[in-house]
Every structure is written in structure tokens, then in C-alpha cells.
Write a structure and sequence with these properties.
single chain, mainly alpha, 9 helices, about 85% helix
């Protein structure tokens, strides 16, 4: 699909250059009569082009909102996790489970705190037992896996929208491009001797919708890939924290079995 769109764009630009060569003389003669500025292009947009531009602007605003919200969420998670990790590690090193849970409760935005809290809550439920069985360790493991799944889904919220915008915005723009070319050919047919002025409006619509669609799609794709990498890093950190917490549970169990 990308190759076909590139070939289409190449042929279209060749056609546009041909029109410029053929109608250069007529355009120069009429240059003082009508100035073809950006404001004039916008004023002369057809209903299809206006509809396409409105859709692209809505997609752009949505993608920007998602980008800002996700960036702030990930930054807060990273900042709180950096503060949380050494504090909870020190508490667990001294076997202060309640303190570790309280520290986790104070870092609501930290992905590590959510995972550790889930495991510690399950572990504390069996802490008073004289022996921590393998089933109880497995229950803690399942609690950690559930917490990781929930937090991963929360981190990925909105990213599917960015992916959809990044993949569909060029086709929305292509829709406007096709109608712009149709308008150009229609103008050429209705005014065969009018030169470039007969097709300039349609070509302007086509190029404007194409450019706007790329301006919407490219940042969405870039940020989707960037955020996906961030989420993958968070998932690895949560998996590592869960593994370390399970090691702590197993060591605690060993100490109780072999006092």
C-alpha cells in the first residue's frame, strides 16, 4: 500500500509539473489579476475538502490530547518509582512488611508500588501462619501477575487510538486528494483554454489535504512507537520487581522452615 501511494504521488507530481509548464504563460499574464495566496486557497475549498480537513483536525486534537496525557502519566510513574524503590527495598530488608505496604500506598502513580503492594497484601494474609506453604506462594505469584496485567493495560490506554490515527490519517487525506484531482480535471474540461487557473483550485485542495494528513499521521506514529517502548520498559521493571518479591517470599519461607 505504501509503494502504491508513492507511485501515485510521483505520477501526480509529474502531472502537476506538466500543468505548470503548459499554463505558465497564462498564469504569468493573469498574475496581477488574481493572487493565489493561502487565504484564497482556504476560501475556495470545496465541501469535500472542508469535511476532510475538519476530520483531520479532530484526529489531530485527539492525538495531541493522548500524547500529553500519556507523557504526564509515564513521567509521574517513573518519578514515583525512583523514589519508591529504595525505600521499600530498605523496609523489606528489615522485614518490615507493614511499613513496606504503607510506603506502597503513598505512591499511587508508581507501577512498581502497585505490583509490590499486591504481592505484599497477599503475603501478609498468611504471615501469621507458622508455615508458608507452596500454595500461598503461588497465590502471591498470581496476585503479582494480576497487578502487572492491570497496570500494563492502564499504561497502554490510548495507544491504540494513536495507532489508528497514524494508519488511517493518510487515507483520509487521500480521499480529499482524489476529490481535489477530480475537481482539477473537471475545471480543465469546463475551461479548456483558461490555463493553469482552471485546475489550480482542485490541485490546491489535493495538496492541502495530503499535507495535513501527513502532518497528523507522522507525529502519531512517532509517539505511538515511543510510548510503546516506554510501556515495554515498564513491564520489564514490573516483572523484575515481581520476581524479586517472590524471591523474598521464598527466603522468608525458608527461614521459617529452618529456624
Amino acid at each position: 500500500m505504501t509503494i502504491s501511494m508513492s507511485l501515485f504521488a510521483t505520477k501526480f507530481l509529474g502531472f502537476f509539473a506538466f500543468l505548470l509548464q503548459e499554463g505558465g504563460g497564462a498564469a504569468a499574464a493573469n498574475e496581477t489579476a488574481s493572487a493565489f495566496t493561502m487565504s484564497e486557497m482556504i476560501k475556495n475549498l470545496g465541501p469535500i475538502a472542508i469535511g476532510v480537513i475538519v476530520i483531520l483536525l479532530i484526529m489531530s486534537m485527539y492525538s495531541i490530547a493522548v500524547m500529553v496525557e500519556r507523557f504526564l502519566t509515564y513521567r509521574a510513574a517513573k518519578a514515583q518509582s525512583r523514589e519508591f524503590a529504595p525505600r521499600v527495598a530498605q523496609a523489606l530488608k528489615n522485614d518490615r512488611i507493614e511499613e513496606a505496604i504503607n510506603i506502597s500506598d503513598k505512591h499511587k502513580k508508581s507501577h512498581l508500588a502497585m505490583v509490590v503492594n499486591a504481592g505484599l497484601q497477599e503475603f501478609r494474609a498468611h504471615e501469621q501462619s507458622t508455615e508458608i506453604s507452596g500454595d500461598e506462594i503461588e497465590a502471591s505469584k498470581r496476585a503479582l501477575q494480576r497487578a502487572i496485567a492491570i497496570k500494563s493495560a492502564e499504561f497502554r490506554r490510548g495507544l491504540s487510538g494513536l495507532a489508528t490515527i497514524g494508519s488511517t490519517a493518510p487515507f483520509v487525506g487521500l480521499f480529499g486528494t482524489v476529490f481535489g484531482i477530480i475537481a482539477a480535471f473537471t475545471g480543465m474540461k469546463n475551461a479548456e483554454s483558461a490555463g493553469i487557473g482552471a485546475v489550480a483550485g482542485g490541485i490546491a485542495e489535493a495538496l492541502m489535504t495530503t499535507a495535513l494528513s501527513l502532518a497528523v499521521a507522522v507525529p502519531a506514529v512517532w509517539m505511538f512507537n515511543y510510548f510503546t517502548g516506554k510501556v515495554d520498559g515498564f513491564v520489564i521493571e514490573m516483572d523484575n520487581s515481581a520476581s524479586e518479591l517472590l524471591d523474598y517470599f521464598l527466603k522468608n519461607r525458608t527461614r521459617r522452615l529452618n529456624p
